[in-house]
Specification:
The protein has 286 residues and is α/β, with parallel strands linked by helices. The chain folds into two domains: 133 residues, Leucine Dehydrogenase, chain A, domain 1 (Rossmann fold); 137 residues, Rossmann fold (3-Layer(aba) Sandwich). The protein is built from eleven helices and twelve strands. It has a six-stranded mixed beta sheet with strand order 2-1-3-5-6-4, sandwiched between helices. A six-stranded parallel beta sheet has the order 9-8-7-10-11-12, with helices on both faces. α1 crosses α10. It is globular and about 55 Å long. Keywords: Amino-acid biosynthesis, Aromatic amino acid biosynthesis, NADP, Oxidoreductase.
Length: 286
Amino acid sequence: MTDNYKLAIIGYPLSHSLSKVIHEAALKTCGLSGSYDILPTEPENLVTRIKRLKVEGYSGFNVTIPHKVPITLFLSKFDTNADLIGSVNTVKITEDKNLEGSNTDIYGFVKPIPDDVKANLRDNYATVLGTGGAARAICAGLVSLGVSKITFYSRNVIDSHNHVEILRQKFPKIKIELKPYTLLDTLAGNKILVNTTPVGMKNFLEGVSPVDFQAIKTLDDDAFIYDIVYNPIKTRLIKYAQECNKRYTGGLDMLVFQAQKAFEIWTGQTPDTKAMKIAALESLAQ
């Protein structure tokens, strides 16, 4: 075990990242010394960044867009989830400077969903808004919960086609559809609605919902709404969920739980997720 954990996140851009305060809280709750650095890394600088992380003695690092797939080219080992979806968000640097990749986004997505909702998803339908960086992990999480069909809605079906084809190849036992947003007029028959788009995020169409109120009202009474946006805490979509008396979760819990699992990979210790969430909320309130 190291005496000082040097951790980081790489991606571009990173101006909105809460990872630093979350992981510093994790270090504190476990009584560990260390640091967590925010390292904006443009795609053309990825190779150089990886070399520096090794040389400068980092224990591990998180990976976010646009590097979650490209980073796989530099890894010597993958965990089951990372290997399954071909996307990595957590890298451990071993003592001999090898890179071991994991995907904790799947765990982070599934963990906040209440047990009765998980049971209700089996053999039922799900709708996912967007096909971007988070879609692979979301799809894998929904498949692990036993859904029988996932419908993805995209504003650009042509650009999204290849992303969805990859998911169809990885998960051949379930039906995966791709539809344009213009056809999103009803959500009847779906037991969960997941927003993976940035719509509603602070400084990006803030106050706007990725799906209109009338469509949300068509969801089944026992449907669950999941918005992975975490800033603001209550997006317009979450407010619509409240108005329709639907159960819901925002993106902060997903962020905290994926961080918990990443921290365990790096340190072997389980941090206090309540303290991590409080640190994130305090940062958002500033």
